[in-house]
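Tip: read the tokens left to right.
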């Protein structure tokens, strides 16, 4: 008689273990999927921050370029007003022209990088015309996903405890 009870207990334990294994794998898959979504949204937030930083760099470079052009214009006016342009003044104008060209090239490079970043963000579904709203939306989504993830982890832990108790009761 005791042999039958053990066989029945092993049979019940095996069924519970199979159900636990399936349920636990499903819970792990859900947690992993949530983690992947969170990582994707974090990357989008990082990309938005990089886009905003690049945009600020462009504005700084544009301001610098305007300043260099104004300085060049002042030097040019000084040269026109003087009867004989000095070699030092000519050198200063040449240096300003070289700085203007270098800064212009830098600005173009920065604009191209910003355009590439904008395209990538738009492909990811981010509206680059409303970055503050997009960033806020992403923060909210990440928060919601983290809550879901915590709930899934807690549910899987509770399930593990329930199956453990059921297996002990069956034994």
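Filled-in amino acids:
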């Amino acid at each position: 008689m005791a042999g039958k009870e053990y066989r029945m207990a092993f049979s019940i334990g095996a069924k519970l273990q199979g159900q636990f294994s399936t349920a636990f794998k499903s819970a792990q898959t859900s947690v992993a999927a949530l983690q992947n979504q969170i990582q994707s949204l974090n990357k989008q937030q990082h990309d938005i921050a990089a886009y905003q930083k690049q945009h600020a760099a462009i504005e700084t470079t544009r301001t610098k370029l305007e300043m260099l052009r104004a300085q060049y214009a002042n030097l040019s006016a000084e040269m026109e007003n003087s009867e004989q342009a000095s070699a030092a003044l000519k050198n200063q104008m040449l240096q300003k022209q070289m700085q203007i060209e270098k800064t212009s090239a830098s600005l173009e490079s920065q604009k191209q990088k910003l355009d590439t970043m904008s395209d990538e963000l738009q492909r990811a579904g981010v509206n680059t015309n409303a970055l503050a709203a997009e960033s806020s939306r992403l923060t909210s989504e990440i928060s919601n996903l983290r809550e879901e993830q915590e709930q899934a982890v807690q549910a899987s832990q509770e399930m593990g405890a329930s199956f453990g108790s059921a297996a002990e009761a069956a034994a």
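Residues 7 and 13 are 10 Å apart (CA to CA). The mean pLDDT is 82.
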